[in-house]
């Protein structure tokens, strides 16, 4: 079917802000400029200049920063207070979600900075996330405590977030020109991806210290939370550490470190995995200080993540195949866990040989699958945009194709 001819536009576009500080000083004028200049219908792959691209994906980083701040606060909040739909952490997370929705609408309508695959991932991801919200609310109306990160409704939130981030990673990866900005934004997007993947483990990382405080008679939870849990027939251990002890290390290895393997191979910088893990742990440390200062419960920090990340970077640098690298990384990871655990700074880990061998075998299979995918025709096709989209180098908006990018 032939492509529709470009539609002419006679809208008067005001001049662009001269600099980011000028844009921030005059937000209404900036929004008016953005609306008139860029909210015109177009198809995915619409030519997008590099400066435009940086602005768009910086907005994605800002949106996920809001979501990460809200979700980090949310975990600590729910180890202190009963659930509240309008709790401040929920509102902060919702603000980030609103920015993501606005960005997906922008991409869908204008066609800027995405190809069809990236756009579909963004759309499917935000759709899954928005569907999960009412399901999660109903779940807590029925089941009460909002204390477990491992519920099915929360899993749908994580899956939706991962899918929309995959779309953002693809859009930036395809169209951003080589250089420092490309590398930094890629690292930022992968940071949020890894944070989302390892997020469920924070339940145990908060729970282990909260349970220790409870057993020592200095609980960090408010009496109403403990009373509510008791009324539901739950002991403190049941809602502070509700999953088996093999879950925390296995999930960090087979999900968190696997995500770092993929990030290292796609971003391509020598210390990609180590940098992402170090920044993540640095962020967790800053949040730890802030939350404790506000009298919220603390958590342990999974320092083993950066040890595993360093091992990944070294393995990829020396071109070790996954079937060799994965067992080595597993051994280093569990050794680091034994050290940190001996100091009392980790949740309980199942360190039996059976648990270790099963986790290591699963990680080896997954890393080998990543290696096979990296050499496949599928990835070669994935590396190419379905539409060119990145040719324009000027900030001047391109006339739109009629109709906009569809949601189907």
Describe the structure.
This protein is mostly helical and 408 residues long. The protein folds into two domains: 43-242, no CATH class; 244-383, no CATH class. Helices cover 67% and strands 0% of the residues. α11 packs across α12 (272-293). The longest helix is centred in the N-terminal third of the chain and has 29 residues, at 50-78. It is globular and about 70 Å long.
Order of helices and strands: HHHHHHHHHHHHHHHH
Category from helices, strands and their pairing = mainly alpha
What is the mean predicted local confidence, pLDDT?
Answer: 85
Q: Helical proportion? A: 55-70%
Strand content: under 5%
Rg for CA atoms: 23 Å
Query: How many independent structural domains?
Result: 2
Overall 3D shape: globular
Number-wise, the strands total 0
Distance between the termini: 16 Å
Query: Main β-sheet: number of strands, strand sense, barrel status?
Result: none
Number of helices: 16
| Unreliable segments of 5+ consecutive residues | 1-9, 391-408
């Amino acid at each position: 079917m032939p492509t529709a001819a470009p539609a002419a536009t006679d809208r008067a576009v005001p001049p662009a802000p001269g600099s980011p500080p000028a844009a921030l000083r005059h937000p209404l004028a900036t929004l008016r400029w953005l609306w008139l200049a860029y909210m015109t219908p177009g198809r995915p792959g619409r030519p997008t200049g590099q400066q435009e691209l940086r602005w768009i994906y910086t907005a994605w980083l800002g949106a996920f920063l809001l979501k990460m701040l809200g979700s980090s606060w949310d975990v600590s909040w729910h180890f202190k207070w009963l659930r509240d739909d309008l709790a401040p952490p929920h509102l902060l997370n919702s603000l980030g979600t609103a920015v993501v929705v606005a960005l997906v609408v922008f991409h869908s309508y204008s066609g800027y900075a995405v190809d069809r695959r990236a756009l579909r991932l963004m759309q499917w991801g935000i759709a899954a996330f928005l569907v999960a919200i009412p399901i999660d609310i109903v779940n807590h109306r029925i089941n009460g405590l909002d204390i477990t990160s491992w519920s099915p409704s929360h899993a749908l939130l994580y899956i939706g977030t991962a899918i929309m981030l995959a779309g953002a990673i693809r859009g930036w990866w395809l169209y951003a020109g080589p250089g420092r900005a490309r590398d930094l934004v890629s690292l930022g997007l992968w940071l949020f991806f890894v944070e989302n993947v390892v997020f469920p483990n924070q339940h145990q990382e908060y729970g282990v210290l909260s349970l220790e405080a409870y057993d020592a008679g200095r609980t960090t939870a408010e009496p109403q939370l403990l009373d509510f849990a008791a009324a539901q027939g739950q002991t403190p251990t049941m809602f502070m550490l509700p999953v088996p002890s093999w879950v925390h290390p296995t999930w960090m290895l087979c999900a968190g470190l696997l995500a770092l393997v993929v990030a290292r191979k796609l971003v391509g910088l020598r210390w990609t995995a180590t940098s992402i893990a170090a920044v993540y742990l640095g962020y967790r440390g800053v949040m730890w200080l802030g939350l404790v200062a506000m009298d919220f419960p603390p958590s342990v920090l999974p320092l083993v993540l950066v040890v595993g990340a360093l091992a990944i970077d070294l393995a990829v640098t020396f071109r070790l195949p996954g079937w060799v690298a994965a067992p080595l990384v597993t051994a280093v990871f569990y050794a680091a866990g034994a050290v940190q655990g001996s100091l009392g700074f980790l949740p309980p880990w199942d360190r039996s040989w059976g648990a270790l061998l099963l986790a290591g075998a699963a990680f080896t299979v997954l890393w080998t699958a990543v290696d096979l995918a990296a050499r496949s025709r599928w990835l070669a096709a994935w590396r190419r945009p379905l539409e060119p989209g990145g040719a324009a180098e000027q900030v001047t908006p391109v006339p739109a194709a009629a109709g906009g990018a569809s949601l189907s």
